[in-house]
Sequence to fold (78 residues):
Amino acid sequence: MANSYDLIVIGTGSAASTAAYQCREARWRVAVVDHLPFGGTCALRGCLPKKVLVGAAEAVDHTRRMRGKGVAGDARSI
Fold:
């Protein structure tokens, strides 16, 4: 059985889902294809920029907490 669609969305991240929902509201026939769980990378596994910033903030925090405990370093800001 062949199906006909107005839009095929690859992925279920926030951008893909937004496009799919808006087109569906406009009565388009929409197919969504994704081999991973619904939600996309940012929602389920975290965006890379966020991971880098959080990792850097944790490094600064760890350095501050170790002052006076035998660890020397000066990481006061990102």
